[in-house]
Specification:
alpha/beta, Purple Acid Phosphatase, chain A, domain 2, six-stranded mixed β-sheet
Amino acid sequence: MRVAIITDQHFGARKNSKVFHDYFLSFYNDVFFPTLEQEGITTVIDMGDTFDSRKGIDFAALAWAKDNYYDRLNSLGCTVYTVVGNHTAYYKNTNDINAVDLLLREYKNVKVISNPEHIQIGNQNILFIPWINSENQEYTFDVIKKSKSKIAMGHLELNGFSAYRGHTMTTGHDSDVFQKFTRVFSGHYHTRSNDGTIFYLGNPYEIYSNDYNDTRGFHLFDTDTLELTSIDNPYRMFYSIFYDDSDYQTFDARPYENKIVKLIVKKKTDPKKFDKFLDKLYASNIFELKIIENFNFQETFEVEELETEDTISILNRYIEEFDTNLDKNVIQKLIQGIYKEACELV
């Protein structure tokens, strides 16, 4: 039996931006749902953080999610298993009050998993593991220890894996306890990584600048053969353009409509020519433009090096360089938590 696995969809992200939701919809219209229909998929596993804010939901975001995702899954006769992630649990110390349970009760085809639970899917008895917190941690690890399942799926925060490209987590739960399983699939981290047993599957699309040019999408999993197949999302939100006295007349700006662009200026000898280049770029209805003038740019630099300096990266780098006897990993995790809380308030 083949099932679809998707995670960290973050409906309502970026302050419920219409531009971002239109971008998300391209993935669902052109990739996700056509694949389900073509492959005859009737079971979808959602591994957490379906909605973006754990404190509330924008009505427009909820309507969008129902119209463009849940109603369509229901009409296709798909059963949806959805685990509670940290973004959908209202409190930090319990999963009891969560967005997916409260918002999706009208859908009889959606099963919400807020506690560790074994569920038979195809010929596999799969252990589902929602977000681990102070209330359920002891019970969760007891269930894991006693489990006879080959497969575990959940929303896990494990050390030793990439939280995003270029940053490996040094905090979180130890992954050794999960090595008893043949396969472990998890959401939470938005970039794909694995150690051969534990697979972080990544989210479906780019949401933040450090997602730039990082392959996203969803997966199909065969419960008989344990084969995992990635279905990649061809659509991007973030782009980099290098300006080197480029000819605005031959420059094609159409692909950048409703996109976020970083324009890296390597050479600019004619300001008027540069202004005309910008005018053409703006005329394409670009969503957001950031200009970086870097006349000392070296060809050996990778584009990704210019993209990883998001807020969290800058904070982590600053803490690493700071002279202190305190545990820097603890400080970084504290700062990341404060930053995420701030993002949820705006």
